[in-house]
């Protein structure tokens, strides 16, 4: 559920293994890794590909930290990389973190507090968008507003829905290791089919969320200033394509969960599905206000180009 975390000191960050599935090409990756290690986990597992193994080993040497372990697979595939990493986890909890995310030093302590509820199988945290450069681009501003809206929706669903969340977000989410450290999960995760014939390689966070809920576990949304993670979004028009991909993955996930709940007569899961669908899609009307706000700000701050058009407005309309 959504809650403010009281005094710490009841948790142990050494019960956590951090997993990063990456190619290591993110410019701020080394800085991000250091922020994760500052939380004092049991270990950090980096899952990469064979062709990047040498470069990742150099990164590990630069860190000079024996907590860092590196494994590789043959090709870039987040799901395959994740399964390879999970096999080597020896702690009660595992946390997946995006390679563009930076943590505050207390993140693991707050996650551990959330797992104090024995019914909780997965936890995600609030997020905050930071710019890639000195200031936000219009696309990053759009992403920041979208993230604030999703934080609000997560809080609303978790508070009124007994821990229900839109999904266990890929930026940072923690899981009880035994739930996903099993051959049945590995097979299902890597052979996830849409309509029985199309293998899915995206939407991994939605799959993990469904797996947790379908196996009778609760989810939780952790909102606290010191548990909020810092992430980045694409600074150009490619952010719209990313949003489209996320929306497509989310729609598939909701449809499948809804069908599963009806087929198995799982009333609890059915209620959660209906609540998520309602919250997610009715709130999409807020996108109109977000876009309008950004355009007003942009048009007020930028002069016209030689064609008598605002440059950002032209780019935005072209992208749409």
What labels would you give this structure?
12 helices, 16% strand, alpha/beta, 320 residues, disordered N terminus, seven-stranded mixed β-sheet
**What low-confidence regions span 5 or more consecutive residues with pLDDT below 50?**
1-10
**Count of distinct strands:** 11
Helix-strand makeup class: alpha/beta
Note the total helix count. Answer: 12
Instruction: Specify the overall morphology.
Output: globular
What number is the mean pLDDT?
87
Q: How much helix is in the residues?
A: 40-55%
Distance between the termini: 37 Å
| Sequence of secondary-structure elements | EHEHEHEHEEHEHHEEHEEHHHH
Radius of gyration of CA atoms, rounded to a whole number: 20 Å
- Tell me about the largest β-sheet: 7 strands, mixed
Q: Order the strands across the largest sheet as they lie in space.
A: 3-2-1-4-7-5-10
Percent of sequence in beta strands? 15-25%
Explain this structure.
With 320 residues, the chain is an alpha/beta fold. It contains 12 helices and 11 strands. Strands 3-2-1-4-7-5-10 form a 7-stranded mixed sheet, sandwiched between helices. Strands 6-11 form a two-stranded parallel ribbon. Helix 2 (53-63) links the parallel strand 2 (43-49) and strand 3 (68-73). Helix 5 runs antiparallel to helix 11 (286-301), helix 8 packs parallel to helix 9 and helix 9 (238-264) packs antiparallel against helix 10. The longest helix has 27 residues, at 238-264. Mean pLDDT is 87; it is low at 1-10.
């Amino acid at each position: 559920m959504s809650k403010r975390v009281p005094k710490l000191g009841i948790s142990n960050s050494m019960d956590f293994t951090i997993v990063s599935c990456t190619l290591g090409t993110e410019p701020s990756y080394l800085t991000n890794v250091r922020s994760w290690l500052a939380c004092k986990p049991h270990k950090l597992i980096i899952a990469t590909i064979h062709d990047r193994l040498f470069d990742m080993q150099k990164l590990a040497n630069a860190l000079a930290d024996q907590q860092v372990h590196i494994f590789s697979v043959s090709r870039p595939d987040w799901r395959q990389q994740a399964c390879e990493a999970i096999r080597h986890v020896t702690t009660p909890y595992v946390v997946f973190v995006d390679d563009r995310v930076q943590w505050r030093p207390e993140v693991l302590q707050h996650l551990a507090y959330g797992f104090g509820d024995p019914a909780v199988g997965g936890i995600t945290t609030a997020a905050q968008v930071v710019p890639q450069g000195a200031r936000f681009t219009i696309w990053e501003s759009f992403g920041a507003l979208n993230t604030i809206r999703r934080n609000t929706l997560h809080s609303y669903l978790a508070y009124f829905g007994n821990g229900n969340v839109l999904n266990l977000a890929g930026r940072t989410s923690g899981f009880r290791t035994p739930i996903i450290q099993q051959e049945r999960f590995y097979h299902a995760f890597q052979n996830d089919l849409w309509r029985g014939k199309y293998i899915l390689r995206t939407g991994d966070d939605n799959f993990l969320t469904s797996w947790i809920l379908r196996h009778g576990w609760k989810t939780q949304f952790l909102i606290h200033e010191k548990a909020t993670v810092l992430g980045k979004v694409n600074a150009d028009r490619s952010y719209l394509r990313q949003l489209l991909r996320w929306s497509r993955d989310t729609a598939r996930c909701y449809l499948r969960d809804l069908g599963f709940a009806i087929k198995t007569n799982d009333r609890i899961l059915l209620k959660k599905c209906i609540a998520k669908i309602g919250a997610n899609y009715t709130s999409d009307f807020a996108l109109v206000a977000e876009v309008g706000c950004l355009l007003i700000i942009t048009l007020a701050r930028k002069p016209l180009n030689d064609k008598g058009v605002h440059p950002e407005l032209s780019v935005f309309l072209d992208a749409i």
